[in-house]
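Late entry, evening session. Most of the bench is empty. Finally got around to the prediction I had been postponing all week. Sequence below, unchanged from the version circulated by S.P.
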Amino acid sequence: MTRVCLIGEDGSNLQYELLSRETAREALATYDLERPFENSLALRTVSIGAAVSLLNDLNWYLTRFVDEALVQEPSIDDEEWLSRTLAEALRNGTIEPAATAEYCKIYGLERADAGLETDGDQPDERGPNEGVETADAAEPADTDSSEADRAGAVEPPYRLVEPLYVRRTGGDLPEYDLRDVEDTLVVRLTEAEYSP
């Protein structure tokens, strides 16, 4: 299944902004919502076409509250993500899957809260794609912040930091070297998105 991940802009609470508005809440109602990163919202769709259609339906909100809209298509790569623009180009057939790997941006992943602990007072050992909090978006939500607060009750352990723009050469990506991070997240881009 194709995944969609929305990363909220700094200073906004993405879950609140989307789930407190009726139109966005209805568009998301059939999906199980996850929070893989700080101030994010992720879900699974049946195809890249469905993912792009959902992003188009949410466009008004994306331009106001979302810093990044990412799509992960397993038939392209199980770990790397696609930018929204690249996902649209794939869906429209203007780019072939084999031609998506050259231009990338690598985000560092660091803990959102170094003091985050589990119930047993042990450090949280989850990876960036494991054990995410899930909100049942199919339940009716009030117009106040209660539904959004429920979806965002526990901050996930990782946040995306400082992207590094790179080109894949010989099948390999350069290492992320902007700061010490625990892990990285690779986003494939179009050539136009990569160019300064």
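Two things to note before I forget:
Strands lie at 2-8, 32-35, 40-45, 66-72, 81-83, 103-111, 133-136, 158-167, 183-188.
The helical segments are 14-19, 22-28, 48-57, 59-65, 84-92, 146-151, 191-194.
Will write this up properly tomorrow.
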